[in-house]
Amino acid sequence: MIQIDQNDFSFFSFLKEEDLNRLKEITTKKYFNKDEILFYKGDEPKYLHLLIKGIAKLYTYDHKDNEVVIHNLMAPSLIAEIVNYEDLKFPANCSFETKAEVLLIDYEKFKTEFLLKPEISMFFIKSLTRKIKALESFINYNISSNSLEKIAKFLIDNESILINLKQVKIAQLLNITPETFSRKLAKLKKEKIIQNEKGYIKILNHEKLKACFNN
After folding, report:
1. Domain 145-212 class in CATH
2. Other C-beta atoms lying within 10 Å of the C-beta of residue 11
3. What is the mean pLDDT of each run of 10 residues along the chain (215 residues)?
4. What's the pTM value of the predicted model, to 2 decimals?
């Protein structure tokens, strides 16, 4: 059995110690590789999924069998918790963009023992509210910001996982053409703000990079 670390439950730090201990008892931890599937569209939700490391991708296919990405989730985050809460089937597939770690919480036991607790109800509401705000921020930022600002902010906000993200994937996440993305990276590299080798990016000058979107 994979050992669950105390830090894995930082998302539930508001719980009392006895509740936190019980939550650990009904939880298992699983490691996933890039492109591995967490669940498929139409599956019944047996677990409440808490992404604690990595990036998850919710996606489906259009009538031409083209992949359509609905949402990218970055740790820490609950994955499709509304499905559990509303007792629905998963409306999309979920796989991983990077190596990832997920806590699988037995939802029937969680529902019986935890869901009626006011702090847990508020936890769900806050999680859904954060997703709505993130979506609003994403829309507003994509409308008002130029490509260099979007790239700079993404690199700062996600520095810890850059080693797992190829440049083409970042361009896809930011909805920027690969050509535009390459030109902006070349500019940042020329100014010695970043370093990019073998398709991966490393930040060399954080202050100059932050200045790209704070001006």
Report:
1. mainly alpha
2. 18
3. 70 85 92 95 93 90 79 85 85 92 94 84 74 59 67 84 81 81 90 86 90 75
4. 0.65
